[in-house]
Write a structure and sequence with these properties.
7-stranded mixed β-sheet, alpha/beta, two-stranded antiparallel ribbon, globular
Length: 205
């Protein structure tokens, strides 16, 4: 998930299921169910368990198909690949680390996936520019304790979100989310160890 050594905004993921090995991410369900994709062996990797991902996509069980997905700190692309496997319409994956971005492109090619794009870019700089399009399913999973989650949330409100967009936010559990932008209504939340993960719906006034 988070790579602290090579890139402050890179998120690398690996699955914790018994069938997955270090340096791999496993797709849980959908058209690519069981597929394992390589991820970079990055020093300081903080893995995400399949349990967290399963919980999230249980929350999204009826809200993934045909969605326009934005993965803000993509890393291994685990969340975006899972959504695409479950028939999301398209996905934009933003990744700052050059090698990680290349790996994302290679994995999309492995899946023969033509409805996703990888942007090798700084997430905050890209979101500060004019919105490329509006999205209705957004993943925000930045490196912990680098003051990225709340600024990212504020930037997304500048034209990147459709009304009623669903937004997944994964952060350190102690983060105060009271400063999230107006219109973010909490739907689901859970704590797992040192992380908190939450699902919001965007309902602008």
């Amino acid at each position: 998930m988070k790579s602290r050594a090579s890139s402050p905004q890179s998120r690398s993921k690996t699955a914790a299921a018994p069938t997955a090995q270090p340096g791999e991410v496993r797709i849980i369900s959908g058209q690519w169910r069981g597929r394992k994709l390589p991820v970079l062996d990055v020093q300081g990797l903080r893995p995400t368990t399949d349990r967290v991902k399963e919980t999230l996509f249980n929350w999204l069980m009826h809200d993934t198909r045909d969605r326009l997905v934005l993965d803000c700190f993509s890393g291994s692309g685990s969340l975006a690949f899972e959504a695409l496997s479950r028939y999301a319409n398209s996905a934009l994956l933003i990744e700052r680390d050059q090698k990680a971005a290349l790996q994302l492109k290679q994995n999309l090619a492995r899946l023969n996936c033509a409805n996703a794009e990888v942007r090798h870019s700084d997430t905050m700089q890209l979101l500060a520019a004019a919105a490329l399009q509006q999205f209705d399913l957004v993943f925000i999973d930045p490196p912990f304790r680098q003051n990225l989650a709340l600024p990212c949330a504020r930037l997304l409100c500048n034209g990147w979100l459709k009304p009623e967009a669903l937004i997944y936010l994964e952060t350190e559990k102690e983060l105060d989310i009271s400063e999230l932008p107006p219109g973010w209504r909490l739907l689901k939340d859970k704590i797992a160890g040192q992380l908190a993960y939450r699902l919001f719906v965007y309902q602008p006034e």
